[in-house]
Amino acid sequence: MNYENLYEALQPQEKSLKDSIASLQKLSKAVMRETESGDIKSLSRDLNTIEEMVFSLSAILDGLKSSVEDFDTKAYFENGDFAEQMLEVCREEEVDVRGEFPVYEMFPYRVRLDAENQDVYLDRKKVQCMRPQSLIDTIKAGQAKLDKASFNPQTFLNELSDAYDLAAMKLKKSPGSDILLSNLYKFLAPMSRFRKDYDQHSFAYDLARLYNSDIESTKNKRGYQFGPSRNSSTKSYRILDKLGKEQFLATICFYDINE
């Protein structure tokens, strides 16, 4: 099964639907004018035309419903057709993808396919999408938006260092300790309204850009080091390095270069 076949089949029917509705709207305005002016002859003629068009419109709707109902969404997911076509679109659109059914990583997004319920999850959000091309378009648009966002790696590192100090104080960590990046995110965006403007995707993208930058220390000459997590359940941020290889960042520590 391939959704693109259904999509192509629906196109002419949808055009007919659109044209019919446009004609009905035009005739509806004419009927109102004729009623107001008392043009009974034209009114009678247009009402008959509308009746014929409604019958035609009903047939178009029946055709659309039949085409949609014939598409077995359960089999589409369970047979792996959706996943296979999604990966094919990724190859065509040059979207980096890692993983295997049912979970895939498309930096900085995580895609999960729920075959049992025929649902697609983009991170934790359910996306109503049966078309792989549309899903990848959404991901590419999100990636493009993040790419266009202004970014200064030095400024970001300084802000990350400040958040680290606050977290260390609150969590009672000794200087130079590793602190989870997921914890630092909460200090960078402490309120929910801030997280709407600066979400986890933006944070992961900024981490990647810092990781791939040449910045080695903060403005006040503190070095830093990213690290993985020993706990598999701990949230790690998957990024791509300069060579396009995936790296998983879970912690960061800051230290005095002079020590």
Identify the notable features of this structure and list them briefly.
259 residues; alpha+beta; 9 helices
Description:
The protein has 259 residues and is α+β, with helices and mostly antiparallel strands. The strands form three sheets. It has a five-stranded antiparallel β-sheet with strand order 1-2-3-4-5, with no helix packed on it. Strands 6-10-7 form a three-stranded antiparallel β-sheet. 56% of the residues lie in helices and 16% in strands. It has helices at residues 3-37, 40-69, 73-78, 81-93, 132-148, 153-171, 181-188, 192-197, 200-211; strands spanning 98-100, 103-106, 109-114, 119-122, 125-127, 179-180, 222-227, 237-240, 246-249, 251-256. A hairpin with a 4-residue loop joins strand 3 and strand 4 (119-122).
Residues in β-strands, percent: 15-25%
Q: Which structural category fits the helices and strands?
A: alpha+beta
Going across the major beta sheet, what is the strand order?
A: 1-2-3-4-5
- Helix % is 55-70%
Tell me the number of strands: 10
Q: How confident overall, as mean pLDDT? A: 92
Note the main sheet: 5 strands, antiparallel
Ranges where pLDDT stays below 50 over 5 or more residues in a row are none
The 3D shape can be described as elongated
Give the radius of gyration. Answer: 28 Å
Total helical segments: 9
